[in-house]
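Q: What residues go here?
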């Protein structure tokens, strides 16, 4: 008996999967840990200090604590491999008035990197000056937790992994917030087994969350205010217990979607709730808040998907219509 499609049920996955560690990325008992501390400083100066420390100790884990606001001007804060960047209360990143950098934080061809905060969330403010909040390029094992990104002209998080078939290299974005970013909140590509858990994305242009991840997991996210709530693809991707809303459509399963599971999500708003592409995908136990249109135009007649099509619950006065040819 559903009178209204509620927000996604809390997954509690974050509490089970994400544990605040006692130490940073320490892989071996012999690993060296180099503590570093920064207050309110320029991003270029911090990036240079990190690079100098990395050059002096190539294999050490850099445990970096930030207690002030780092200002990004002409260069982003570049974070090297094997670095744990922890923002203390009062720490954060912001774009300068005349910022010309493309992003606030840049992680390029790196691994074993984490960005997090000890309490609450840490603010990364693009102020409408930079294109991207966090750029991860050709990197793996990058973990981002409890970050609030606002005011980027393009994307809040732009994550490119080291290849869709590169396993045991997964990254994650968890318990974070993205708001008022021009074309998208979270964009992930070429990253197998990626985890996108318990994030909130609002008013982020074209696509709230766009993810292409083989055997990835997207769970417990709340997305609203963009044209498309979520655009998802990749083999074996699981999208579950999300609250998805978009002005045009809640969920788009791309042509690369293969054997994906879309389960127990709630949908609201939009002209359509789902545009279903790809093959072998399953819809199970989802909740629809209004007249629901599942669009098969990407995959006429629903071949490959119709075998596992359990629509789920409907709000009061909601109904389902499947379209095979949409003008």
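A:
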């Amino acid at each position: 008996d559903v009178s209204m499609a509620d927000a996604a049920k809390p997954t509690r996955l974050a509490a089970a999967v994400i544990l605040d560690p006692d130490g940073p990325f320490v892989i071996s008992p012999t690993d060296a840990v180099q503590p570093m501390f920064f207050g309110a400083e320029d991003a270029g100066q911090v990036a240079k200090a990190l690079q100098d420390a990395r050059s002096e100790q190539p294999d050490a884990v850099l445990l970096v604590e930030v207690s002030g606001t780092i200002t990004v001007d002409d260069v982003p804060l570049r974070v090297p491999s094997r670095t744990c960047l922890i923002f203390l209360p009062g720490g954060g990143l912001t774009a300068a008035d005349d910022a010309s950098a493309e992003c606030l934080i840049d992680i390029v061809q790196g691994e074993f990197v984490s960005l997090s905060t000890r309490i609450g969330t840490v603010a990364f403010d693009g102020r409408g000056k930079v294109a991207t909040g966090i750029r991860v390029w050709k990197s793996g094992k990058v973990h981002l937790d409890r970050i609030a990104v606002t005011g980027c002209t393009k994307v809040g998080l732009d994550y490119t992994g080291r290849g869709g078939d590169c396993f045991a290299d997964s990254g994650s974005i968890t318990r974070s917030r993205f708001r008022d970013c021009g074309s998208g909140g979270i964009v992930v590509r070429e990253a197998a087994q990626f985890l996108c858990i318990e994030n909130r994305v609002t008013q982020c242009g074209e696509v709230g969350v766009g993810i292409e991840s083989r055997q990835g997991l997207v769970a417990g996210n709340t997305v609203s205010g963009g044209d498309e709530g979520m655009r998802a693809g990749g083999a074996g991707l699981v999208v579950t217990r999300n609250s998805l809303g978009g002005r045009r459509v809640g969920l788009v399963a791309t042509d690369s979607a293969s054997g994906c599971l879309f389960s127990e999500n709630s949908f609201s708003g939009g002209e359509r709730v789902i545009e279903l592409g790809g093959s072998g995908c399953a819809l199970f136990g989802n909740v629809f808040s209004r007249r629901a249109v599942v669009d098969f135009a990407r995959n006429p007649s629903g071949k490959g998907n119709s075998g596992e099509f359990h629509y789920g619950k409907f709000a009061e006065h909601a109904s389902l219509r499947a379209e095979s040819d949409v003008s």
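A: Context that may help when evaluating the design: The radius of gyration is 20 Å. The chain is about 5% helix and 50% strand.
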